[in-house]
Amino acid sequence: xxxxxxxxxxxxxxxxxxxxxxxxxxxxxxxxxxxxxxxGAIGAIARLxxxxxxxxxxxxxxxxxxxxxx
Amino acid sequence: xxxxxxxxAGEVGTRTxxxxxxxxxxxxxxxxxxxxxxxRSVAEALGPSVRAVEYEPGEVIPSDVAVIACALPAGVGHxxxxxxxxxxxxxxxxxxxxxxxxxLRALDQNARSSGVTVAIGxxxxxxxxxxxxxxxxxxxxxxxxxxxxxxxxxxxxxxDTVRHERRMPVRAWRDGGWREERxxxxxxxxxxEPIGGRDxxxxxxxxxxxxxxxxxxxxxxxxxxxxxxxxxxxxxxxxEGEWGAxxxxxxxxxxxxxxxxxxxxxxxxxxxxxxxxxxxxxRLAGTLGPVVKQPGVQGLGLLLEPVPFLAxxxxxxxxxxxxxxxxxx
Lengths: 70, 329
What we know:
The complex is a heterodimer.
Chain A: E1 2-3, E2 6-7, H1 18-50, E3 58-63
Chain B: E1 2-7, H1 11-21, E2 26-32, H2 36-46, E3 50-53, E4 67-70, H3 77-87, E5 91-93, H4 98-105, H5 108-114, E6 117-119, H6 128-137, E7 142-151, H7 156-167, E8 170-174, E9 177-181, E10 186-190, E11 197-203, H8 207-213, E12 219-225, H9 230-233, E13 243-254, E14 257-268, H10 269-285, E15 296-298, H11 300-303, H12 306-315, E16 320-326
Parallel strand pairs in B: 1-2, 1-4, 2-3, 4-5, 5-6, 6-15, 7-12
Antiparallel strand pairs in B: 7-13, 8-9, 8-12, 10-11, 11-12, 13-14, 14-16
Helix pairs in contact in B: 1-10, 6-12
């Protein structure tokens, strides 16, 4: 029997089903990497955007003394 | 002369004893801790007027004691307060955890019938913050909201309390009634420098003490900042403890317009809490001005006149500040 230009007999012995499993695992691994990369990029953007200017306040703190204690 | 019993020789108890040593009118300070060697070493460090004693919560109070300052981890102080009420001795407690405060408030009828004044929540917040809130409320014709926020913790037990409070479901005082609320997560609160902006979360905490003191205010809330994770793994705190801060915002009508007064305090949390607990104890014993005698279990917002208390704390280096400008609503 000829498959992919080779006979089944001249293939090197491989674990049962390893070709299919290997391809699927690599695909899955790549997808996971892609998802993690996209999530990381979104997280980084969100983190940078979240560190914008502090809410505007005008003024400052003055120690209570004198009139406030009478 | 007056004898005070300080129960708990932790971060707050040690500072309380130190402050009481500097308070005129006390002949001797008794210091008790389950770790008797720690109590002894602290007593030796504080001088001859401080004496370590063996006392366990729930035991009969020594006969010559005139006032008790209780600085124990959450919930442990209940037995001390119950024994103080039974002995007819005024007591101040620094407990700030919600369930522990409710257990203490449940002793109110006992305290009233025994004619004993019990001051609870005597620390930075609750405590000093409640007095500052009372001071701010007096500046308004009508008040519709009080927000109290605190960041900082006095020691490992305090860190545990903060973590516990932040995990628990929130009961908030809204429109004059209690309401269960889902946590809305952290929000940025601005404290005086050098603390600045910190993430804080609404907790139930000592809201009930605010409700007791300001029942006519429709919205009351307490927020707590998150302790950094590193504190969990540190065996003990530095000698000066952790920096902490409180912010008190009061919103209402004055001079015909709606406005806000924001007060803040920054100090080492244990020092501020210890000073507040010591001053309250001294007021209960009558060694700082007239005796404060108001039988029942109460927070400081209900118990103390703000101005003398704030002035006394300012003399001891715990100073409040007012925000002048346009606060973030």
